[in-house]
Amino acid sequence: MATAYIVDAVRTAGGRRGGRLAGVHPVDLAAAALDALVGRTGVDPAGIEDVIMGCVTQAGQQAGQVGRNAVLASKRLPQSTPAVTIDRQCGSSQQAIQFAAQAVMSGTMDVVIAAGVESMTRVPMGTSAMFHAKEGLGTYKSPGLEAKYPGVMWSQFMGAEMIVKKHGFTKDDLDRFALTSHQRAIAATNAGAFANEIVPIEIETPDGPAMHTQDEGIRFDATLESISGVKLLSEGGALTAASSSQICDGSSAALVVSEAALKRYNLTPLARIHTLTVTAGDPVIMLEEPLFATDKALAKAGLKIGDIDLYEVNEAFASVPMAWLKHTGADPDKLNVNGGAIALGHPLGASGTKLMSTLLNALKARGGKYGLQTMCEGGGVANVTIVEMV
């Protein structure tokens, strides 16, 4: 089986809902990440055999087949470049990486871009299960689902609260985790840790054109007092908006290639893709699956959690990475070292390649060897990708 390599990965800085990226159409937002990736790597655009774009709410993006339209809006990619858009909920662009790797590993392709985009400003929250315990995915129930799961209300928010109770977390635990996310994001921003991964995006402001280069959701004045003062999302619950991922606009992209492509285009890889895993479990608690997917991935890789130098576990809600830490016995100092979605935002379909760009840059900066990335996904699914720096 051929080896799949990641040459580079980039992302835009996150934009708050209705914030600095609100006026950028998602097709253009995605195209900017694609163009930056092609420009930085120096790969021949004509040699790119497919673009796999993650996006969760395509109808809300006003973009049609957003992957293909992003290619057509690109300043670097020819119109002969194929593209497809996929939805594995929050793990959509992590799955894009895995599909790209599988294409390379199978020998059917040599150069594939995995990418993702989401303009959450354009998506009414009523279409999302994240915060709607009363409606949630139950809005989309079929007779078949109702027969198998009678009376179940499908909600990621409810699943996150179930994890809180199951693992014995308190509201104070969640608030302290959220504060750490902001503190790490602040430190990373101030140290320039994101400079290599962020693609500047030109935006219009009341003062004229500007470049968007810094994650807009970071609370530089965050304190435990300010976080703990945010009202609960549900009566008797523990989660608040402050201990949940931020609604976010953004895009991201990664170049996945074969060894033959490295030689053909004179490319230098950052990492090889070591292990790919996707699993599915309980669709009601829903967000706990990264725990068990990680067990399977480590066993498949022949590695232990202590062998992994850094981990990116998406902060959909604070309870998810906290439960992951408790289950795996992982070192909390290696988790989301530059902050996570609570501080930086979670642009749904873009988060998979976004986290990969952060993971690879953090591993490079620290001289680490192995990195592990996992995402909780709607319906009780989870992806795990293990990379090895080269």
From TrEMBL:
Gene3D superfamilies: 3.40.47.10. Residues 267-388 form the Thiolase C-terminal domain. The keyword Transferase applies. Keywords: Acyltransferase, Transferase. GO terms for molecular function: acetyl-CoA C-acyltransferase activity. PROSITE patterns: THIOLASE_2 (PS00737). The keyword Acyltransferase applies. The active site is at C90, H346, C376. Residues 5-259 form the Thiolase N-terminal domain. CDD domains: thiolase. PANTHER family: ACETYL-COA C-ACYLTRANSFERASE, BLR7806 PROTEIN. Belongs to the thiolase-like superfamily. Thiolase family. This is Acetyl-CoA acetyltransferase. It comes from Novosphingobium arvoryzae.
